[in-house]
Amino acid sequence: MFNYSDDGLYLESDHRLEPGTIFRIGIFNSPFSSEPGRHASYRGIIKWRRPLKGSFYFYGYGVALLAEHGRENGPNRHDQLRKHPRSKCAIPLKYEFGSRTYRGTAENVSSSGVFIKTRDPIAAGAKLTVLIPAKKVRKIKRLQGRVAWSNRSGFGVKFERLP
Length: 163
Prior knowledge:
2 domains
């Protein structure tokens, strides 16, 4: 698993699965689990498949998690674990790291962080400044943060609280 959202996940594999296939996936230390360090199992459906170039694996998959009767997992369980709910969006932004400025797109945001989709991901642990257009015209909000996780499609930032 490379990335996850409120209602699904992205994974890569050498196995060719067809869109519409329902399958079971086991995840150790699952972000949807109520207890860290445990193995959890979920039902999912393949929504899309893409051949990968320049990857260790042959295919990338978009998976929607399916609710299971009598079990507390899937998207709703994950939402309950979040301290600050996320809102989906598509906001062009910039971020500063080192002496450079990069471009990306905020795909979901909360009061505590943001997921930035970009071609220039930054390694987990790095400090950076996120420049997000404010609702008022010609205003840019500068937020300090730290990269919480990173993959090839982007990275998650946890905002630092202002003193």
